[in-house]
Amino acid sequence: MKGRTVLEVGADGVAIITITNPPLNLLSVDVMLSLKESVEEALPRENVKAIVVTGSGGKFSGGFDVSVFGGSDGRKENRKVGFMSIEFLTDVLEASSKPIVAAIGGPALGGGFEVALVCHARISTSTAQLGLPELQFGLIPGLGGTQRLPRLVGLTKALEMMLMSTPVTGQDAHILGLVDSVAPTDELVNTARSWALQILERRRPWVTSLHRTDKLEPLAVARAILKVTRRQAQKQAPNLRHQLICIDVIEEGIISGPRIGLLKEAEALEELRQSEITRSLVHIFFARRGTSKIPGITDLGLPPRKVNRIAVVGGGLMGSGIATALIVSDYHVVLKEVNESSLLDGIGRVKVNLESQVKRGKMTQEKIERTLSRLNGVLSYDSFKDVDLVIEAVAENLCLKQQIFADIEKYCPQHSIFACNTSAFDLNAIGERTKSQNRIIGAHFFCPAYVTPLLEIVRTERTSPQVIVDLLDVGKRIKKTPVVVGNCTGFAIGRMFFPYSQSAMLLVERGADVYRVDHAITKFGMPLGPFRVVDRVGFEVAIATSNHYVKAYPERAFKPMLISVLQEENRAGESTRKGFYLYDDNGKASPDPDIQKYVEKAQSTSDVTLMKLSDGDIVEMIFFPIVNEACRILAEGVAVKASDLDIASVLGMEFPAYRGGIIFWANSIGSTYICSKLKDWSMTHGDFFKPCAYLVERAAKGASLVRHLNCFCSVLHVEQMEKPLLVFDMLLLELGGGTGLYTPYVFGH
Ligand SMILES: C[C@H](O)CC(=O)SCCNC(=O)CCNC(=O)[C@H](O)C(C)(C)COP(=O)(O)OP(=O)(O)OC[C@H]1O[C@@H](n2cnc3c(N)ncnc32)[C@H](O)[C@@H]1OP(=O)(O)O
């Protein structure tokens, strides 16, 4: 049984029904049936005058357990569609002859919130979280939320809460009229009890949300709002249907009446819950939470040490972004620069970052000064004597980084963590001039560091588990999703992303059209096609990165001619307003009619046969090499879990979350198909496409690409091992086939 409700009747005649499924009191069919039983038991009892519904442990309910959605449950419900929403919640609970009040602490989300909306009044704590975030799973609210929320807060606010999946606090819910009264946690249930009795005595209104109309906009206005919202949703997410379905269901209720709306809602949910999109988004939900669970590290029981003061070395784009992320989350930061003017520039960038947060509504103007007071600019290492963590974020120059690490070792206390924000260099090389290898770790932030939610944490074979646990904790406090990876050129995210532009160049040099490639890829769901990405990054950086990868992975790197040809024409990307695209004063990109001329020049440098490709071919030829690289990363143990790469691809590359991340998507296509395509292309176009051993092995078995590293934590490079090829037995636990097969693995590059 997955949870239940508990019924207790007090001497005052109020029955308390407590949803009990800790820790979040998630709903399940069992909980709902138990709630129904408790309500049906309480209603006819003579000693019950009113009912309060609440959740155990001060948490109302986090909503339905989403692991049952997306077809993973297998349990088929035989009940009629709408049974819970209409026959129970509406016809029994909402229509009850005794007042029912919800007492809400903690989360009241999704189905949990919908139960509360059915009640005749809601009392909450000020910090409770109330909302309908079902759309984040490709679902729509299924227990009446689409009908009741607009009737309680008006259409505009309801649409915002549902389509953005953003909850409101109890305090804000009170202002919106969603909550009738706010009470302190320890008085919550008693306040709800007396409210319920007051409703009975007609001293408080007895409201059935479904029948309210006072907050609903007039029909013509409502229709206009829905039309605009529908258009926006179509524009923002052309590959997704569930937002449009949600809007249709709301409209149906407004035009044909809420009961018809309820039925339409239940039918739509039934269809959506089995969709591939829901399956993918549910996977992303759990995968994201899973990134901070590192076998052999976070299961050691090491509590994170308290990090109070952090030093950031370098106030450039990355350093100032990192400092911003830290001070916004209440850390005290020392920002070190080499001279007065660079320091002023760095602090200036932090201010600009904070102001941009004000413009985006993420911070108030008044908070800027207080936040900035946590930033202390310095020119020497003297104030590093009490820092717990240093994050080095200077330019990608190995000698400079080595010198900084040697310097900070002299000034910092013994316990300080030394983190490096490199996206490229081997951390062992960076720490070569120190004796502190066990406290060196990579903290790879993504630009802009104070916005992008991803933090790639890079460990070497010598980084201590305590240091990893500490950085995970800092990451959590600054609201980043960490992905812990091993040490190698490009780490996991850079390596996975590298083939994105490489394949695109290869395709164009073999006959594809630049803009057709970008169009096919954005249609697939990427926000920017590969050529727009190269323009944004800038040709100089793109070439430097490319050289780095070509050096590290020569056997599979493609050396494009196209960028060099464009560079000869003084094009350098978006910053010069001329790259693959032309850019206007506002940075708006438009195709360049001259581009084909340069493409033909690049094509003429080799004697390849030009291809004709469909959009589907383009998508496969761009993404299968990424899948291939992801497989290498998994096989080498650079990533611990396939789902970590899914999150890395979604947060680091903006791969569409509704496709579940790179490996999840690849599995939906099948390893055999992907491998056979790569094999074919490698015959014609060379080793860039050659499938790696891991992919070939999985494809031969028709197996999933999911494999979890069991417990070994470090990635060893063969060239760094004293006795190469001796003893590195990496136990790989195969979860995909569920056979528990252990395979010895030796790797290197
Ligand atoms: C018919 C209905 O309309 C359909 C629905 O109700 S769909 C569900 C709607 N509910 C939601 O979207 C809520 C999703 N959950 C959340 O936003 C957050 O978990 C929360 C705000 C409730 C709590 O946050 P927080 O305290 O930080 O805990 P968090 O780490 O996220 O979750 C704790 C555990 O519960 C799990 N969990 C949370 N919500 C869950 C859910 N709805 N289903 C399944 N598991 C859930 C998490 O995976 C995590 O598991 P773990 O400990 O094994 O890693």
The distinct ligands, each listed once, are:
3-hydroxybutanoyl-coenzyme A
Question: Low-confidence parts, pLDDT < 50 over ≥5 residues?
Answer: 711-749
Mean pLDDT: 92
Q: What is the count of DSSP helices, taking H or I runs of 4+ residues?
A: 28
The strand order across the widest sheet is 12-11-10-13-14-15-16-17
Question: Helicity range of the residues?
Answer: 40-55%
Q: What is the global morphology?
A: globular
What about the largest sheet? 8 strands, mixed
Give the beta-strand count. 22
Q: Report the structural category.
A: alpha/beta
Distance between the termini: 50 Å
Please report which band the strand proportion falls in: under 5%, 5-15%, 15-25%, 25-35%, 35-45% or over 45%. 5-15%
Catalytic activity: a (3E)-enoyl-CoA = a 4-saturated (2E)-enoyl-CoA; a 4-saturated-(3S)-3-hydroxyacyl-CoA = a (3E)-enoyl-CoA + H2O; (3S)-3-hydroxybutanoyl-CoA = (3R)-3-hydroxybutanoyl-CoA; a (3S)-3-hydroxyacyl-CoA = a (2E)-enoyl-CoA + H2O
Organism: Rhododendron griersonianum
Protein name: 3-hydroxyacyl-CoA dehydrogenase
Pathway: Lipid metabolism; fatty acid beta-oxidation
